[in-house]
Design goal:
The structure holds two protein chains of two kinds.
Chain A (H helix, E strand, L loop, with lengths): L2 E5 L3 E2 L5 E8 L9 E8 L3 E8 L5 E3 L7 E6 L4 E6 L8 E8 L3 E3 L2 E3 L2 E4 L3 E5 L2
Chain B lengths: L3 E4 L2 E4 L5 E7 L8 E6 L6 E5 L3 E2 L7 E6 L2 E6 L9 E6 L6 E2 L3 E5 L1
Parallel strand pairs in B: 2-11
Antiparallel strand pairs in B: 1-3, 3-8, 4-5, 4-9, 5-6, 7-8, 9-10, 9-11
Classes of the chains: A mainly beta, B mainly beta.
Chain lengths: ~130, ~110
């Protein structure tokens, strides 16, 4: 059973970059069929998918966040990361890392039910 | 984008009663690729149901899912005290994951 743990600053200033890392335990990212990614929960939009990546580096994003988000993977450290640029107060929320097995694929972008989830980390955007 | 609308927003019931939660999609969800999650305060969502009706590992059989096309239902046959939390549906049959806004099950 893979387990996920988010880490990163809990406070980010407006216009700066939010950076989070998700460390995976219980098995190597490169040996898993999971697609890894990020979901956030904000007061304004509820649960919202941000972006995902496969261990090969193939990434894909929510079109509404594509211009600001980058998801990357480091198999040597068994973790994956999120960068969200030019943040504003509306980006304040709980950020969850997650894994998903593919049920529906469009090219290299694959989607499925989400399991496992990290415990989540609160990120506040404020000066 | 497939919009998921959950109803009711809040469901007030007593322990032991049956809960019926609805999730309606703005368009057909292919292969009934709908999941349900339970979220307790301060915790991440927990997968309950996938593929509209398959229970996830370790989920009690009082939880069941049904539906197809655009209409999906989560049923809790007999509410236990720990079931009074928030539930979300999610679709994964398109190139954009989307979630419903949630249904809160509260003690009447």
């Amino acid at each position: 059973q893979m387990q996920l743990q988010e880490s990163g600053p809990g406070l980010v200033k407006p216009s700066e970059t939010l950076s989070l890392t998700c460390t995976v335990s219980g098995g190597p990212i490169s040996g898993s069929s999971h697609y890894w990614g990020w979901v956030r929960q904000t007061p304004g939009k509820g649960l919202e998918w941000i972006g995902s990546i496969f261990y090969t580096g193939s990434d894909y994003y929510n079109p509404s966040l594509r211009s600001r988000a980058t998801v990357s993977v480091d198999t040597s450290k068994n973790h994956f990361s999120l960068k969200l640029r030019s943040v504003a107060a509306t980006d304040t929320g709980i950020y969850f890392c997650m894994g998903s097995l593919a049920s529906y694929c469009v090219g290299v972008s694959c989607f499925g039910w989400i399991d496992p989830w990290g415990q989540g980390t609160l990120v506040t955007v404020s000066s | 984008e497939i919009v998921l609308t959950q109803s009711p927003g809040t469901l007030s019931l007593s322990p032991g009663e049956r809960a019926t939660l609805s999730c309606r999609a703005s368009q057909n969800v292919i292969s009934n690729y709908v999941a349900w999650y339970q979220q307790k305060p301060g915790q991440a969502p927990r997968l309950l149901i996938y593929g509209a009706s398959s229970r996830a590992t370790g989920i009690p059989d009082r939880f069941s899912g049904s539906g197809s096309g655009t209409d999906f239902t989560l049923t809790i046959s007999r509410l236990e005290p720990e079931d009074f939390v928030v539930y979300y549906c999610q679709q994964y049959g398109s190139s954009l994951w989307t979630f419903g806004q949630g249904t809160k099950v509260e003690i009447k």
